[in-house]
Structures are given as C-alpha cells and as structure tokens.
Amino acid sequence: MEKVIHRVSTLLILFTIGVSNSIWLLGISHPLIDPFFSDFAYWLGGLMIVVILLNIKKLTRGDWVFLGLALADSIMNIFTADYRNAATLDMSIIPAVIFLFVLACRLVPFDKVDKSLMLAINVIILLLMLFRLFKHLINAGLIGNFFTLDNSLIQIWINVNVIGAVIMFSSILSVLMIRSLELKGGKIWQSLLYLLGLVGTWGCQSRTSFLVLAAFIFLDLVLPKQFLEKHRFWLWGFPLLFLLAPFVTWFIAKSPSMNLFTDRENIWHAFFQQWLPSKRAIFTGQKPFLYGPHLFSTHNSYLYLLCNFGVIGYVFLSSGLSYTILKLRNKMATLSHEQISCLIAFFLALAYGFMEDSLMVIQWVPIMFCFLGLAVAPATKKVQ
C-alpha cells in the first residue's frame, strides 16, 4: 500500500510540472490551455492537498505549524480581497499554494522511476520548445539575426522571456536528473543539453535566461560541493536574499544612474511611489500594479509579492521557505551533491525573480519551486 501511495503522490507532482510546462509551450490562448488557465491555483492547491493527505503520517510538528499559518494567511487575504481588488479567490491563496507544493515535494522523495519520468518530461518540453522557436525564426526570415541579439523579438506565440525561461529551466532540470540517475555517457548528454539551452535562450533573445543558465553552468562546475556539503553556513544566503531583496530593489529604483535592468528601474520606482504612502498597502497589499501604456506589472517577483499580499504575506512565504531550507543545516542529515546543485538552481531562480514576476505567477510554481522540493526531500528509500 505504501508503494501505491508513493507512486500516486509522485505522479500527481509530475503531472503538475508537465502541465505547467505545457501552458507555455502551447500558449495561454490554446484551446487545451484556456479552460483551466485561470483556475490553476485551485487545481494545483487541490492536488497538493491530496498528496499531503496521502502522506499525512510524515508531517512534523513544524509542518503542522506552517499549515496553520498558511490557512491563517489565506483567510486574512480573503478578508482584504476587496481592498486589494482581488476579485477571485486564487489571488488570495497563492502564497499558501506555493508552500503546499514545496511541502508535498519534501514529503515524497523521487526514486529512479520518478526521476526518469521527470527527465523525459523536461527533455520533450525542451525539444518541442526549441523546434517551435526555430521554426518561427526560419519562417519569419529572422534566423540570419541569430548572432545580433537586437531585441527585435517581443512576442512569438508568447512573450520571448517566457520561452527563454522554459528552455532554461527544462535544460537545468534535465541535467540534474541525468546526473542523479548516473546514466551512461552522462557528461556528454549534459553538455549537449547545456548547449541546447544556451542556443535556445540566445535564439529567443532572452538575456536574463541566457545569463542565469550560464551562471548555473559555471557555479555548478566551480563551487566546491564537498566543502559546501560539510560547511552549511551558505544556506543562510536564502533568508538573507529574501530579507534584502525589497531593499536592494528600492535602492536600484532610486538610483538615477543605474540602468542595468532594461528600464525595469522606472517600473520599480513607480511602484514604490504608489505603494509606500499607504500603510494598509504596506501591511496587507494593494490593487494590482500596472505601469505605462503597455500596462506592465512589477517585473519583479518580490515587489509582486509585496504589492498583492503586503509585508505580512511576504514574511509568511519567505519565512516558510527559509525554515524549510535551514532545516538542511541539521548535521545528522546528509547533503548530497545533487541537493547542492538543486539549491544552486533554486537560488538562481530567486535571482531570476528580480527581473520577472514568475516566482509569484501560479502557473510557474511547479517549474520554479520543484528545484527546492527536490533539494529538501530526504534521500530515497526503497518503498515496501
């Protein structure tokens, strides 16, 4: 029975990752995607509750505390929904659903079968995304501009930054699964996937995705994992990032000379001008922020979280994630090289959040937070 519960649980998690990738592969206006796109928070939250209930015996006292906090945070967000112009329930439960997803992943460590399925899902998504991208470039006569990176692409079937992010994350996840499975010729396959990822992120002119992927390749190869395995002080970097992110963004927005983030500084500056004067907005959030004639959002996951859920929502989510990560400092638990690689990937996903809202967009959650889920899950044991 335990084996059946384990398999059902992991298949539900893998299903959400596959669906999340498929949304961006097909496009949000596709007939297969449109019916449930706006209800994704309910689907994801409901499936993760099922996984947690199936594995309820594994919950620790700390898990129960944060489940209670998640419920309290959601109730508070519902009561402030009118003020925040959150017309639908899903805009009140996003922080709680994120925590439910990470908790579900932690309760159900992946075995070789699960990792093989994860590898297959991400390789298929990567190849299909690359095929669709380069088919468009060739048909539109843009393939000759491949090396220019002139930012002429804005929208294909979906925003090019979305395309770049899918290519980046699927290539990283594929490499992590190959390494974990210890496949024959693994280094060759890893190099090929890295190359495809770099070519794809460059080809769709997504600078951020290209740089984040390049950073992961470099850090994953260079950082001394044996040292990081024994000395885990670096795990404090995650709560430190959560703590400093709003202040760093504010400093950048206020700087008149800084222009490293392709004019996002102006968006962030406008957000702080709107958000800071209202004490109620600071604590519990405000109506969705829109900027300029194109109605841009915050283009920053940390500001998006502050905008929609305030400091209270920010503290809930960041403290829950930090607690989950810092539990890995327990010297009695081993920390494998694969877990360290997953944590590096998640840290870079958090860095990616400085440029995009993706961390807080519910349809992205299974893709971006599965790195953390894989990292905090205990070593797999043979299920009876």
Structure, explained:
With 384 residues, this protein is mostly helical. The protein is 68% helix and 0% strand. The protein is built from 16 helices and no strands. Helix 1 (2-26) runs antiparallel to helix 16, helix 3 runs parallel beside helix 5 and helix 5 (90-107) packs parallel to helix 14. The protein is globular and about 55 Å long.
Low-confidence stretches: none
Q: Please tell me how large the radius of gyration is.
A: 20 Å
Q: Compute the separation of the termini in Å.
A: 8 Å
The global form is globular
Largest sheet: none
Number of strands: 0
Count of separate DSSP helical elements: 16
Structural class: mainly alpha
Strand portion: under 5%
- SSE order, one letter for each helix or strand: HHHHHHHHHHHHHHHH
Residues in helices, as a percent range: 55-70%
The overall pLDDT average reads: 88
Keywords: Membrane, Transmembrane, Transmembrane helix
